[in-house]
Amino acid sequence: MRKIKNNLLTIITLTLIVLQLPSYSQQQEFIPELDTLEIEEIVVSGTRVEVARRNVPVTLSLVSREQIELSNESAVLPVLSHRIPGMFVTERGVTGFGVASGSAGQISMRGVGGTAPNTEVLLLIDGHPQYQGLFAHPFPDAYVSSDVERVEVIRGPASILYGSNAMAGAINIITRQQTTDGFSGNARVSYGSYNTQKYMASGGFREGRFSIFASVNHDRTDGHRDTSEFRIVNGFIKAGYDINDNISVTGDFSVADFNSQDPGTIYNPAYFGIDILRAKASLSVQNRYDRVEGGLIAFYNYGDHDFTDGWISRDYHAGVSLYQGVRLFPGNRLTVGADYKNVGGIANSGVPGAADKWHDVTDIAGYTYMQQTLFDRLVLSAGLRLENNSLFGLETVPQAGFAFSMTDKATLKGSASKGFRSPTLMELYLFAPNPALKPERLFNYELGIGRECSYSRTRAELTVFLIEGENVIEVLPNETPPPPMMRQNVGTFSNKGFELEVSWIASRELRFSSNYSFIDTDKPRLASPRHQFFADATYSRGNIRLNTSVQQISGLYTLVTGPAPQKESYTLVNLMFSYRFTQNIEAFLSGRNLLDQDYTIIYGYPMPGVTLFSGINIRL
Fold first, then answer.
1. Residues 212-253: pLDDT tens digits?
2. Which range of residues forms the domain containing residue 302?
3. Which of 263, 327, 440, 448 could join 463 in a cystine, given CB atoms 3.0 to 4.6 angstroms apart?
């Protein structure tokens, strides 16, 4: 409690300092509009087609481009870890997540996930899934802030729409596109502690029905430990053409060239080098009419991995998604869809009987989802997905829920939904393999109430949840070796808790946001803090902007095996100050972990202390 009180005093003090800053200009570029809360938010992730957020029965959080830019992070996932209650993302250094042993970027949602690699929370780009073929996890360093318009996060199972790997939730990154005629551009250069350098350039152009957006990012750091260097280059391009007012075509391509070093744990240092190339491409056709809306998405992901321990692999993930929504009669919306996904890969892993063999698996699914509005206040939702896996057979995924508008500003929501995750090719054939594994499954029950008040410019949402899971896959000793260790479906789990989000626009210059989550797990879970609190305040006036934030984590398990599981608790205070010299040039200075906390998120990988960054943003 003393740490929390001290941190709150720090935030209040910083805020009071901010309120005394003079205005150096009458320009208002930084100042948010007061009617932000009066605009009805439209989302697509919860239903596949555009719908008002308040009518979606599942819990769905939004992270805006403004919030992402406030962090000056080049990667997206650390921002989400702060802004989304119940969601936690592991980190291990000043920048860069890495892969394989000791990697970060594991995502936990409501105490589900957090294992290495992450396969329980599905990451999507514009609605199509992102994970590599053999390990079935996303590549967290490939998702950069410069390409993001907004992020929609489903906190709870999303398997009815997206299938396997959306067992605990889904993160849908909506990428940027040029919406205004002519050219616009952005660039950022920053330098910070441990020789950390970040470079970004992006630009877009639109003329008539054609638009294009492209970006390039380069991050590098020496790291805060010996042999922890990190280098990455990201490229992205997206082009679109409106055939007419109702039909549009969009294509995109991105690539990430990644090279890093892993020093191992401080208890057992061991150099480990990583060289990865990953690329993805997609093509979508969307239609939008008065009563009909839908799309067709084709995508292909590819990866080439080369490690210094001898691991060499190639993998792919390809698929097609077709969905169509229609309003059959007033108050009704029916969505039907079909998905085809095929993943595969080949690896030289050094595992006897598993090396240099090609493995692949195919999923074919169909689903239907209906919403019906009754009495102008009650929205009932129900749906069913049937997914057939070439190895595991048929999986049935139901979901039902409601959203009741108690008043014009208050909404009560509830849902019951199933999530599942099919075993990965790695689990079946490569490390501690077991071809007889079954899919993991869970049922999630949640009830939430949200309220927004335009005259006081506040929004608050409270959600309680209960999760019951089964067929959890864990590595255990094999009773009949070889191999000595084997993955097995070993039982059940139960998580429960609540999440709270609050935002307040105090004035044209000052706004606050905060979230808190409490998760009670029946057994220790990695990357699943029992208490997670985040709060930030942003002050904008004239050419000045100041953002200060605090994150409090307690009850975070970093080690759950052995006789003495390890837990961490820590508090991080960050501060960012920016000054706009002209309409197009802005300089910033930021500090992270200003309390110089000594903490770890991944066992044996201590996090850096105070880190400082400075840079320049240029807008054209």
1. 999 999 999 999 999 999 999 999 999 999 999 999 999 999
2. 2-619
3. 448
